[in-house]
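Researcher: We're teaching a course module on how sequence relates to structure. For the next exercise, students receive a sequence and then see the predicted structure as tokens, so they can try to spot secondary structure elements on their own. Here is the exercise chain.
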Amino acid sequence: MAKRQIFYSFHYANDVFRVQQIRNIGALEENKPVSHNDWEQVKKGGDAAIEKWIDESMKFRSCVIVLIGAETASRKWVDYEIRKGWNDKKGILGIYIHNLKDPRTSQIAPFYGKSSQGVNPFNNIKFTDGRLLSSVAMCYNPSTDNAYKDIAENLEDWIEQAITIRNTA
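Model: And here is the predicted structure for the students to work with:
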């Protein structure tokens, strides 16, 4: 099977180091993360520039993976990316990343690089019939023992399930 092209949605400031671990899994088509400097340049263009960057970056992707950290659900652009992905008929799934270690804080007790679990961002989005997107889109909470291994072993299946769900919804 060909590697899927994925759009990752996440809270950059809080979670970029956890996200980088998932990007390195290799089961997926390689897509380079935007650098901090590039993102700052995009942000300087205002909301219209950010929307254009997201829209262009999401083209030709088959699935949007929301990497859920402690504050992801409250991020304006994560919400936009989820809505855009769903409306563009892309698979949508969430993965809680609080149990992946962040090398910046991995020596600090009591968390040892882990974070608190965020809330499901799909609860923020309602269909016209009142159902929440969370009733359709799956969120996965990897093992606390070895979150990286759990994600690596299941990511391709989760993506295929998300695409199937979207194609039938």
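Model: If you want an answer key for the exercise: The longest strand covers residues 63-68. Residues 147-168 form the longest helix (22 residues).
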